[in-house]
């Protein structure tokens, strides 16, 4: 449930309340002297102690699937699965491309 910040307009006291959306509406209706305050939201991202986020296996599978659909793209070079045969074939093609120039 979200946390809402309210300021009492009579006393000036600020308090945080954890309410469901329906409770929030009821609270505002029952307490007209309480004014909701706009505060920044807390966003938690990444893993504690890590410099960057790690992608899960599902993401890696999706990238691999896209790379298989576009085998000649730079994307496929980076994320595609390569068999030994594919690697050797690519090396031979590169060799002949260089000879042609």
Task: Describe the protein in words.
With 101 residues, this protein is α+β, with helices and mostly antiparallel strands. It folds into 2 domains: 3-37, no CATH class; 57-100, no CATH class. Helix content is 46%, strand content 15%. It is built from 4 helices and 3 strands. It has helices at 21-30, 57-69, 74-79, 84-100, and strands at residues 3-8, 14-18, 34-37. A 3-stranded antiparallel beta sheet has the order 2-1-3, with no helix packed on it. The longest helix is centred in the C-terminal third of the chain and has 17 residues, at 84-100. It is rod-shaped and about 85 Å long. The N and C termini lie far apart (66 Å). 1% of the residues are buried.
What order do the helices and strands come in, and which of them pair?
Blueprint: E1 3-8, E2 14-18, H1 21-30, E3 34-37, H2 57-69, H3 74-79, H4 84-100
Antiparallel strand pairs: 1-2, 1-3
